[in-house]
């Protein structure tokens, strides 16, 4: 064996050492590279997993049209495998809508030529899937020049969410615009502050309240609506609301439209958006509250003055108000009511006072009344109490949940109603049994009411009357029963005048059977008209007989008057001749007469004088009855007239031994009249008194007067006049009949009465059998 030289050994050692060092380095480098490779492989695997789970599928389109893509692209396109070339992807059957495929081919070609990026939404053919394609030129690290990288996103869910978000945004935008319009149109000031408490929004009411020209000017100047109160500025109040995260409400004064107003200001925190605020004018609210309290007090005062009982219960069903009639009507105690008892307890007290209707199951009845609080509508009942009291109960639920009860005592009304019904029945029976025919026509001319006599007279069927015919229809049906059918128009006009013109009219109508009816149309207070008919056939016949008889009597009276007048004048002529010859004989023109002859002649003169006076009396009486008695008018001294009359009668009185006395007062005075006629009346009274008085009687003529009239009284203490004879004492015909029967009677008293009445005066006779008689003539001064 050859041994190494030391140099060779050194060299060998150095080589071995270098080899060893190289082996160690290679080993360490290998380990490091293995470690880096493993790290790179892990990173590649992670990136592959990340790329596989990415929402986008990458595609590399090389310049020659080849495609590199992940497998899930085939699923998105509805294919079994990924297209190998871009022409397959953009072909008609490439899985995309033809229009989208053509646009995608154009965009890819433009990206390859010009190197521009693009984004394009496409849809799968026959699918609802929406794909978003984003394309850009591929870098040198990915592919050769002219290549394009595409990222395809499945945007189906995203697009639905985007559409929902767009719809939500539109809704929010509309709501925001509506809210802004509402804020702007609000009648009270509203504003918004940014987080730094500066005004950023005010509405038109705010601008008007601060007398600003525009919202921008108010915001720019920072014009505040309300004033600082107790050191608290509007900004500080808003900052307090924001810091406390709750609304802050305060009452502060403000000057609006030149008037001091009280405003309720509310600041509402909006988080990061700042603070919103609004102000409400409290003046009208306070006035409304005062008015409400005043109205409530007035209502209480009014209810307290009602005659009906009133009770009011609150939402808790406790008695809150009552009036005196309520307490009196139900016999309740003031102290008990002052404790505000509940509704049920009040009913119990009413029952204890026996002021409720009797019921078997009172608790059930009370529970039903308790439901009045929950009723949506008012309730009304009628209660009949044990003592006969009738109550009308009205229950009105109140908006606050309470109840108002009104109790009206209708006992008197019920009694009056019963009495009225009785009266109506009596009236109906009376109305139906009247002898007169009665019909009532309403304001429109329809027959509304009739009695049986009406139906009988007109002979109308019940069926026609039940239809309540108009007056025209009724008269058309009955005009054939009239003697003159055209008189139906008269009846219709009278009914119309009573209903329309409210005038009363009367008339008569004849029927064809000879009956005659008087009718009247009378307006009634209720606007209707009462039509009545009365059968006057018999009375008309009697009236005609009486009329004929009266005409015959008047004719006989005229004949009598003419006869008496003529006879008076005819008798006066021979009487004057007889009296003339007797006077001549008495004067001795026929020679001297014996005493007996003179007595005969004196008797003739007395008889002719008396007969002449009787003729004059008859003539005056006849003229007085006819109203043609002549009366002269001149001043008459009644005292002298009375003395002259007494002088004329004194001889006859003395012959019978009668005391004829005269008593005249200064008040008698004068009257305007006919002296001869007044004296004639007075003579008749004196003659009558002397004639009927016995021997030794006393006759007195008394005269007095007043400023309006004078009075002459002739009285005697004779036998007086019986009552039956006093009734006919001034009747000339009766006096003549008495004279024919042999009684002592004349026409002096009837003539004296006519003479007194011809002067506008009167003659009164007062007599008692056995007490004498007094005749009084009263004459007016004028």
Automatic annotation (TrEMBL):
UniProt keywords (A-Z) are: Coiled coil, Kinase, Membrane, Phosphoprotein, Transferase, Transmembrane, Transmembrane helix, Two-component regulatory system
Transmembrane residues, as ranges?
6-28
| Residues forming coiled coils | 155-182, 278-305
State the SUPFAM superfamilies in the record. ATPase domain of HSP90 chaperone/DNA topoisomerase II/histidine kinase, Homodimeric domain of signal transducing histidine kinase, PYP-like sensor domain (PAS domain)
Catalytic activity field: ATP + protein L-histidine = ADP + protein N-phospho-L-histidine
Positions of the Histidine kinase domain: 566-782
Q: Name one GO molecular function term.
A: phosphorelay sensor kinase activity
Documented EC number(s)? 2.7.13.3
**What's the protein name?**
histidine kinase
Q: What species is this protein from? A: Sphingobium herbicidovorans (strain ATCC 700291 / DSM 11019 / CCUG 56400 / KCTC 2939 / LMG 18315 / NBRC 16415 / MH) (Sphingomonas herbicidovorans)
